[in-house]
Design brief:
Blueprint lengths: L1 H17 L4 H6 L7 H5 L5 H11 L1 H8 L35
Length: 100
């Protein structure tokens, strides 16, 4: 587990500087901090490694993606729906008390 955390931090810092890469781009990079197989082995797949960077190092992930945290888009205002018109029903009179 300690190896996975160390590899993840190294890769996150590298991608924050260079931007996120595909496996082919990473293999071709001359300045990669560690070999591709050593980078992928603790995670099982490249996509899982990227997901772990996103979950464990969100600030470095945002730098690697090349985007600043975006403000949430304002929700469009929706006009309230008019209430359906219901015809008024005549009130039923209470039954009269029976005479004894």
């Amino acid at each position: 587990m300690a190896n996975k955390k160390a590899v993840l931090l190294q890769l996150a810092e590298y991608f924050a500087d260079k931007g996120m890469m595909t496996p082919a781009e990473y293999k071709a990079a001359e300045d990669a901090p560690i070999r591709f197989m050593v980078a992928k082995r603790p995670f099982g797949s490249w996509a899982r490694m990227q997901g772990m960077i996103k979950a464990n190092h969100p600030t470095l992930w945002m730098k690697a993606q090349g985007s600043a945290p975006a403000a949430p888009a304002p929700e469009p205002k929706v006009a309230p729906k008019p209430k359906p018109k219901v015809a008024a029903k005549a009130k039923a009179a209470a039954p009269k008390a029976a005479k004894k």
